[in-house]
Design a protein that fits this description.
By secondary structure, the chain is α+β, with helices and mostly antiparallel strands. It is built from 5 helices and 9 strands, in the order H-E-E-E-E-E-E-H-H-H-E-H-E-E. It starts with a helix and ends with a strand.
Length: 174
């Protein structure tokens, strides 16, 4: 009787281990989407046969780790260097540094950027939209302007920035 109980217990343990298996597994399908979180946006794919290590299980998802090598020059610590990186900014374009400094004083005293862009910007197209320039990538705009945007945190306003077309006050919005 003792042997029967021991055998049943051992079988139950083996079945339980098989169904809660962690460790190394292989991608069964031709291509499997990978996501940063369950039901999240697709961030890449794993090819069928790729070996993965299971780190965590949820009812319909498993968190996996892949050991792989990539070319070192494919990496960057600067997110703005990632292909497809987008940023967004608004600006107030003025024709003189003196006028730009006057508007900057108003902003520093709590003035509304969008309203001041509409009132003062010589770029009438963006001024009508509160200075919004929409999304853009690296290389889309003048270097001095772009570098100023990259130095700002979202929501921050620059000092006066000189470019070939005038004097800008820039607000990073994304």
């Amino acid at each position: 009787m003792k042997n029967v109980v021991l055998t049943i217990s051992l079988c139950a343990l083996l079945v339980n281990t098989a169904f809660t298996q962690t460790g190394r597994q292989y991608v069964r399908v031709k291509n499997e989407n990978i996501r940063a979180q369950p039901s999240g946006k697709k961030i890449g794919e794993l090819a069928g046969g790729t070996e993965v290590e299971i780190l965590e299980k949820q009812p319909n998802w498993v968190k996996v780790q892949v050991t792989a090598w990539i070319w070192s020059k494919s990496l960057t610590g600067d997110p703005s260097q990632v292909e497809g990186f987008k940023m967004r900014a608004s600006h107030i374009l003025l024709d003189s540094e003196a006028k730009a400094n006057e508007v900057l004083v108003q902003l520093n005293q709590g003035g509304d950027f969008s309203a001041l862009a509409g009132q003062h910007s010589i770029d009438k197209a963006s001024g009508a939209k509160g200075g919004d320039l929409g999304e853009f990538s690296r290389g889309d705009l003048m270097p001095a302007f772009e570098e100023s945007v990259l130095k700002l945190k979202v929501g921050e306003i620059s000092s006066v920035v000189k470019s070939a077309i005038g004097y800008h006050i820039i607000k990073r919005t994304q």
